Amino acid sequence: MSLKIVIDAEVTTAPYEQLRTQIAEQARSGKLPVGYRLPTVRGLAEDLGIAVNTVAKAYRALEADGVIETRGRNGTFVAAAGDAAAKEAAAAAQAYAQRVHRLGLDRASALAAVQDAIRATYPKG
User: Fold this and answer.
1) Contact at 8 Å (CB) between 93 and 85?
2) How far apart are CA 14 and CA 81, in angstroms?
């Protein structure tokens, strides 16, 4: 298993977001297994030819999302992202359900709002 990242300078997506997305997708698909040790920030920046701060920003976002975890001087590793993502999604869904209930929306309206948001976020699905 190895990390495969391609930063495309021709697209409008910021390099840190390209990096964040590719690592997240590889971790969630299992291409990068739980416990896989990621390169250092400096090492990956050098390999990709991008700024150290760009990699650091992507790593911070991935850590906030529960995809990776930093273990101090031991390095940065792929976390059990599926569990963290599922828990966060469940918490967000619960908060949404409580909010729309307080707003007085019925079940059909609440579900329609979610479906519209998902269609807007995942236009190809």
Assistant:
1) no
2) 23
